[in-house]
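For reproducibility, we list the full input for the zinc ion complex.
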Amino acid sequence: MLLRHPREPLELADVPSPRAGEGQVRIAIEVCAVCRTDLHVVDGELPDPKLPLIVGHQIVGRTDGGRRVGVPWLGWTCGVCAYCRSRRENLCDRARFTGYTIDGGYAEMCIADERYCFPIPDDYTSEEAAPLLCAGLIGYRAYRMAGDAKRLGFYGFGSAAQILAQIARADGREVYAFTRGGDVAAQEFARGMGAVWAGGAEERQEVDAAIIFAPAGELVPAALRNVVKGGAVVCAGIHMSDIPSFPYELLWGERAVRSVANLTRRDGEELFARLRTLRIKTQRTVYPLSRANDALRDLRSGELVGTAVLSPES
Ligand SMILES: [Zn+2]
Ligand SMILES: [Zn+2]
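The corresponding predicted structure, in tokenized form, follows.
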């Protein structure tokens, strides 16, 4: 499925089969999960995508050698800059991103840099594993940045939150789900995934730290209002609307606001090591690859519960 121009529907097209270069692998794609960032790319909210582009960065498939691997958002880094040399390659200025500046996974085949592929644990099906590759990985990085908060607030309860809620519970923490006001379906979903409380984003409910998944800047002051002194508000999305001004009093008391950018390979190694003993369940809706536009539409409208997964074979 090709994006020829931002803000236009993806187009089903035949493209030449890609060839792997030095250090790369060719992957026959089994599934690709849909991420909100795909929407930001398609909707033209992220600058300068490769065009035409194959979107998608939560890919699971098999290499020509038969190994099952996952391909995440971070697709290539320079390896020599100060960020790369300090194992913060997520901040590399020259980084390239799967499904944004490199062709991604809304396709039957893709090429990936071998160094950035992760082996998939055997007891996860490809469909189960795909949402872990961005929602799981970047979510996990955000989770670590939230520190050792006992009561953790999630603003927006979708793909990443459903995964993190299970990790948080396994760590003995309580999850508080803040959704769009009146979104009863999302609140029920959150409770079903183990949230001890679910309500509207404008509601007052004290938490020790908060992670914002929804791309809405007005959630930053809303979350600060609910976070206790010393707590962090972590913005986990790659794109967010402008943050409205707010009184310093909301930040006072050593509260912190920070963003999380991309992922490092270390995040992936840590998360996949945890997943060997912690079984994560995700709620998914499978769409055939040719219906990628429908999956994006359902995510955009907020109708989708859980994660959309595209399958070239169905
Ligand atoms: Zn670099
Ligand atoms: Zn993503």
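Residues 77-78, 81, 83-84, 92, 94 surround zinc ion (ligand 1) (CB under 6 Å). The longest helix spans residues 159-170. Both points were considered when choosing residues for closer inspection.
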